[in-house]
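FAQ

Q: What does a record look like?
A: Structure on top, sequence underneath. For example:
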């Protein structure tokens, strides 16, 4: 039995247990309506904040998960923020990004000590930078979409990961964030992968001892622009 047959076998068994007929047009119409409407689930009260309260919640959640945060008035501030962060953490003054148009607009030449590489993440990269398309203040979670402009390898291979997000893209709930992505990419055209990141990689699987960098970066620094 191949994969398609196995899936069909399981679905047929579920339909049989629920006494669902294959020609149930009402049920099919209901499913299609729900898929198009994207109804929200229960949204926690604290995720309904907006404005400064929303931003404060986002930063509080991030820092509570061992991430660090910087504020930039505009993209022009980013080079010096990055240079300062790398100096303070005794990190090399070089990093890798994808080809996102946001990074192309940044005046990197204003921080001449920095060296920016482009392309997919390499095992030898100590520091990488990605753009988060949106974020949910509800849990301090950033949404990173895959593609040539922001390769997924940049998210997981380095020891230190820097993320840039626009203030306007920080929303309250997960539902808000997913709706924002649908507006950016259009219906049924989301990227192959959307990675949700809420802090540095960690695990406590071994004797309940927190270990940083278990399956990704040990450091996460977020730059909020605007």
């Amino acid at each position: 039995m191949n994969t398609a047959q196995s899936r069909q076998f399981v679905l047929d068994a579920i339909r049989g247990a629920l006494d669902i007929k294959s020609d149930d047009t009402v049920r099919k119409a209901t499913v299609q309506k729900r898929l198009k409407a994207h109804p929200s689930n229960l949204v926690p009260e604290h995720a309904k904040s907006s404005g400064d309260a929303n931003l404060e919640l986002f930063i509080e959640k991030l820092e509570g998960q061992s991430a660090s945060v910087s504020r930039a008035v505009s993209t022009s501030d980013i080079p010096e923020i990055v240079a300062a962060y790398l100096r303070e953490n005794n990190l090399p003054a070089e990093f890798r990004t994808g080809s996102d148009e946001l990074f192309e607009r940044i005046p990197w030449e204003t921080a001449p000590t920095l060296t920016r590489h482009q392309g997919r993440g390499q095992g030898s990269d100590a520091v990488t930078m990605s753009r988060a398309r949106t974020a949910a203040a509800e849990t301090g979670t950033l949404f990173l979409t895959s593609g040539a402009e922001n390769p997924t390898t940049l998210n997981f291979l380095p020891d230190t990961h820097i993320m840039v997000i626009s203030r306007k893209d920080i929303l309250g709930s997960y539902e808000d964030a997913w709706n924002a992505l649908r507006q950016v990419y259009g219906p049924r055209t989301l990227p192959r992968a959307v990675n949700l990141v809420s802090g540095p990689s960690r695990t406590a699987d071994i004797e309940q001892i927190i270990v940083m960098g278990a399956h990704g970066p040990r450091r996460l620094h977020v730059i909020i622009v605007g």
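Q: Is there anything notable about this one?
A: Residues 3-17 form the longest helix (15 residues).
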